[in-house]
Amino acid sequence: MVLFISTNDDLGGAAVVTMRLAMALRRRGIDARMLVGHKRSGYAWVDTLSSWRVAAAKVAERAQIFAHNGLTRRDLWKVSTGSFGAGVCSHPWVEDADMIVLGWVSQGVVSLSDLRRLCAMRKPLVWWMHDLWCATGICHIPTSASEGSDAIFGCERFREGCGDCPYLHWERRKADLSRRIWERKLGLFQTLPIHFWCVSNWQKEVCLSSSLLRGKRLEVLHHAFPIEDYAFSESVSSDSANKKLIVMGAARLDDPVKGLSMAIESLNLLITKHPDMADQVEAIFFGSLRNAGAIAGLKMSHRYVGPLADSDLQKLYRRADVVLSASLFETMGATLMEGMACGATPVTFGRGGQGDIVSHGADGYIADYGSADSMADYLYKALTEPFDRQAQHASVAARFAGDRIAERFCRLTKQTCGIDLI
Questions:
Q1: Which of 190, 245, 367, 377 has the fewest C-beta atoms lying within 10 Å of its C-beta?
Q2: What is the DSSP string of 272-321?
Q3: How far is C-alpha 350 from the chain's CA centre?
Q4: Which burial class, exposed, middle or buried, applies to 219 when counting CB atoms under 10 A from its CB (0-12, 13-18, 19+)?
Q5: Are 129 and 197 in contact (CB under 8 A)?
Q6: Angle subtended by helix axes 13-27 and 402-412, to nearest 10
Q7: Which of 267, 270, 315 is nearest to 294 (CA)?
Q8: CA atoms within 13 A on the CB side of 422
Q9: CA 66, CA 77: separation in Å to the nearest integer?
Q10: 290-304: b (≥16 Cβ within 10 Å) or e
């Protein structure tokens, strides 16, 4: 039995792609299950840890961070310490598992102490990393989240050992909480037999440059994509206003990492350079938006439609001409996959897993990093010289369909863990 451990089962990108992989493995006849901190699905092969233990561990960890953060809530949820867990090793599925795969397990699900106990059970343990927490002291994204930074992340301390963490607004010193957790991780990662898998080649390069994972054998297992749910349209039928549609979305649109202000600047430049496009194009934004005025400066027709159910999102993508991502970086980039699967042309920056999804000039465009001018030029090209929609769908299917990723999972498991699942 393959046991995936995750904070959630279908809430959040990491949980969703973990569940998709488990489903793909089950379709192959493999007994794949999920053990989670919070369950929303009705699947019998998904079980939960003790709810009170998860809640207590989560509160204890946030209190620890709060105390080291000068008693402020600022950036409270951008870091995790792994200091508290929900006693995952006591669950019977852990004992029964032939191998264990950790996904995103922060916020009180698996602690660093639990990690040592899991390895002591002498089962192959894979950590399928969905962000960069394993490569840093405490942060999930090593950045001060300021757009336009010359540094890739805005913070490069993870390459040398953390400390003086910009997310700890009170305890800014070398031997701070981030350094102490980094030291704990270093001791564990140097001695425990953990197999680290990345979700993109870019993430692999970053992890290999970190002081915690440098020299490790890292594999890449991309996200499993439910291609069967994302049909494409041979041609885009214009909406009632006869507009071409540029679609951009995120779980939280105005998270600075998503580059919303860069997207707006690029879209405005598109209209400035090509005034004739003003009456031909509309931008559609989906996802949560804390600041309703964040898109007010856009000088073209636009709509904000809020968070969308999967079925509504698929309909939107099938009407889209372009899917836009202005993220400063992404470990992979789900919206690009989704848009391409429905036939849209992607325009994005390339610092992240986007390069694993988009082949510049072949099925989309990768703009010069941080350049609104370059992004505007490629938006125009995508609108006026779109790629074949069926070919876009086929490109995603060939590389990321669930059955293909499940097959690679089985190959990697045999190569790295010595277990033959087929």
A1: 190
A2: HH-GGGGGTEEEEEEEE-S-GGGGTT--S-EEE--S--HHHHHHHHHH-S
A3: 15
A4: middle
A5: yes
A6: 80
A7: 267
A8: 11
A9: 10
A10: eeeebbeebebbbee
Buried-exposed string 147-179: b where 16+ CB fall within 10 A, e elsewhere: beeeebbbbebbbebbbebbbbeeeeeeebbbb
Cβ count within 10 A of residue 280: 16
Do 329 and 153 touch, CB atoms closer than 8 A?
yes
404 Cα distance to chain centroid: 20
72-98 pLDDT tens trace = 888 888 999 999 999 999 999 999 999
Which pair of tokens denotes residue 414? 């045999």
In the chain, % of residues over pLDDT 70:
95
- pLDDT exceeds 60 at position 238: no
Q: How far apart are CA 283 and CA 326, in angstroms?
A: 14
Per the CB < 8 A criterion, the answer to whether 363 and 341 are in contact is no
- CA dist 203 and 196 (Å) reads 11
Pairing of β 194-198 and β 345-348: unpaired
Strand pairing of 281-288 and 244-252? parallel
Assess whether pLDDT exceeds 60 at residue 51: yes
Is the pLDDT at 333 greater than 80? The verdict is: yes
Could you tell me which of 257, 311, 256, 322 has the C-alpha nearest to residue 285?
Answer: 322
Identity of the residue numbered 77? W
* 155 φ, ψ (degrees, to nearest 5): -145, 125
pLDDT above 70 (res 41): yes
| Contact of 46 with 146, CB cutoff 8 Å | no
